[in-house]
Design a protein that fits this description.
With 472 residues, the protein is of the alpha/beta class. The protein has 19 helices and nine strands. The relative contact order is 0.09. The structure holds nicotinamide 8-bromo-adenine dinucleotide phosphate. The site of nicotinamide 8-bromo-adenine dinucleotide phosphate (NBP) has 23 residues, from helix 1, helix 4, strand 6 and helix 6.
């Protein structure tokens, strides 16, 4: 009998938790997983819940009320296409497929056109919040036709995280807009994580104990930097390994992994000529961290200064706080600039203030600070760059001396702070009335007759100089 309100394919970490979340809101959920033993185990583990375990896609499709609402939560890439291909012959006109994985937005656009051609409806939804978010309430970024969003809205709004009573889900825009925004969200997440790690690294080099560092992050979580990532950093630093009794963080190998959304963000920024230097630094920091063997060898060959930090601890904590806060603002300014640029290019009609508001809960970058971003775009929807909002402008002005001192101190002590310094470099470049690109233009004209504009002539008039011949 067709009795399920919602169906989900892919019972790994995210799928299982999303199913439990949807079911807990009063919906009957039908589930299917390629490895059917996983389905059996999952359903058996949750007796008494309104779950229907199915052994084949035919049985799964047959168990759903029409129009069917089927969410796919499988590994991004080929597996999503494989599942869609198997589903198409089993579905009826106007059934809805939702891809809730971390799909590349261009794949989502392709699938949107493909499924529309089959008379089916498609939503590409970014889901953030990891396992816990999926279970208790994620931030959801759905993209697709507004009419399809209206059908999905009651379920999505009921399962999303809530902040001040507002669900952390909005219709982001058509086509690939939802997955695109989720991709940039992940890029911003990379930036936040790296900035926190750089703060930790400075404290470590300055001789702070892990307990002292945990206390700093716990305290920061009460102030301007309040966020999920600061909170879990404090908790992670507190965690002791039961065997040697040491902080677990100090036992973890310093090689970071990544699944691709950060790199996709960099590629997209390059394609659109948008600077996201903080996110860039964060992705590259993960890449360098993964080259552990090379780093260990180089540590014996390439020398730097002896670390000698004499700044009083309380003073250093305040300075690093300010460097982190300012860098974070720059990172968000860059990420939002990229979203704005792509939104305009694709005519997605994106609302940056509302996008920031759905990141306030459920997702990994949730933070008090996002309220300020929403306020900034509410008061000025045409804001050119977040740094120009009066609130953020003042924070950048108030924190910049400490920010500069931290970047200088780190660099004098040979402590890598690629994201702190990339953020500061962006700030200083963006606010520079005059950059040295005049000399660059001269070089280009010198070797390639690329021409240049002149300060003393109208814009749009191009000049070339007959540069002297170079004798080598
Ligand atoms: P995974 O990304 O690890 O995918 C595992 C699931 O994909 C299993 O159910 C597996 O079935 C299924 N699958 C694969 Br692999 N190939 C398949 C195929 N050809 N046909 C059918 N099913 C196939 O799961 P996840 O970590 O739960 O993530 C799901 C999606 O959500 C991904 O896109 C991920 O990037 C995204 N996401 C994850 C997180 C997170 O914190 N993990 C957060 C936000 C978003 P099997 O059991 O038969 O192997």
């Amino acid at each position: 009998m067709s009795q399920a309100d919602f169906g989900l394919i892919g019972l790994a970490v995210m799928g299982q938790n999303l199913v439990l979340n949807v079911e807990s809101r009063g919906f009957t959920v039908s589930v299917y997983n390629r490895t059917t033993a996983t389905t059996d185990e999952f359903v058996a583990k949750h007796p008494g819940k309104n779950l229907i375990g199915t052994q084949s896609l035919e049985e799964f499709v047959g168990s759903l009320k029409r129009p069917r609402k089927i969410q796919i939560m499988v590994k991004a890439g080929g597996p999503v296409d494989a599942v869609i291909e198997q589903l198409i012959p089993l579905l009826d006109q106007d059934d809805i497929i939702i891809d809730g994985g971390n799909s590349l937005y261009t794949d989502t656009e392709r699938r949107d056109a493909w499924l529309a051609g089959q008379g089916l409806r498609f939503i590409g939804a970014g889901v953030s919040g990891g396992e816990e978010g999926a279970r208790k309430g994620p931030s959801i970024m759905p993209g697709g036709p507004a009419s399809t969003w209206e059908v999905m809205k009651p379920i999505f709004e009921s399962i999303a995280a809530k902040v001040d009573g507002e669900p952390c889900v909005i219709h982001i825009g058509p086509g690939g807009a939802g997955h695109y925004v989720k991709m940039i969200h992940n890029g911003i997440e990379y930036g936040d994580m790296q900035l926190i790690c750089e703060a930790y690294n400075i404290f470590k080099h300055a001789g702070f104990t892990t307990e002292e560092m945990a206390a700093i992050f716990n305290e920061w979580n009460e102030g301007d930097l309040q966020s999920y990532l600061i909170q879990i950093t404090g908790k992670a630093l507190e965690q002791k390994d039961p065997e040697p009794g040491q902080p677990i963080v100090e036992l973890i190998v310093d090689k970071a992994g990544q699944k691709g959304t950060g790199q996709w963000t960099l590629l997209n920024a390059a394609e659109n000529a948008v600077v996201i230097s903080t996110i860039n630094a964060a992705v590259e920091a993960r890449i360098l961290s993964s080259q552990k063997a090379q780093r260990v060898a180089a540590s014996q060959e390439l020398h730097g200064p002896t670390v000698a930090i004499s700044t009083a601890k309380a003073e250093l904590v305040k300075k690093v706080h300010d460097a982190l806060y300012a860098s974070k603002i720059v990172s968000y300014a860059q990420g939002l600039d990229l979203i704005k640029t792509m939104g305009e290019k694709k005519s997605w009609g994106l609302d940056l203030g509302r996008i920031a508001s759905i990141w306030r809960g459920g997702c990994i970058i949730r933070a008090r600070f996002l309220n300020r971003i929403t306020d900034a775009y509410r008061s000025n929807p045409a804001l050119v760059n977040l740094m120009l909002d009066p609130f953020f402008k003042k924070v950048l002005s108030d924190t910049q001396q400490n920010w500069r001192e931290v970047v200088a101190l780190a660099s004098l002590n040979g402590i890598p702070v690629p994201a702190f310094s990339a953020s500061l470099g962006y700030y200083d470049s963006y606010r520079a009335e005059r950059l040295p690109a005049n000399l660059l233009q001269a070089q280009r004209d010198f070797f390639g007759a690329h021409t240049y504009e002149r300060l003393d002539k109208p814009a749009g008039e191009f000049f070339h100089t007959d540069w002297p011949e170079v004798i080598e």
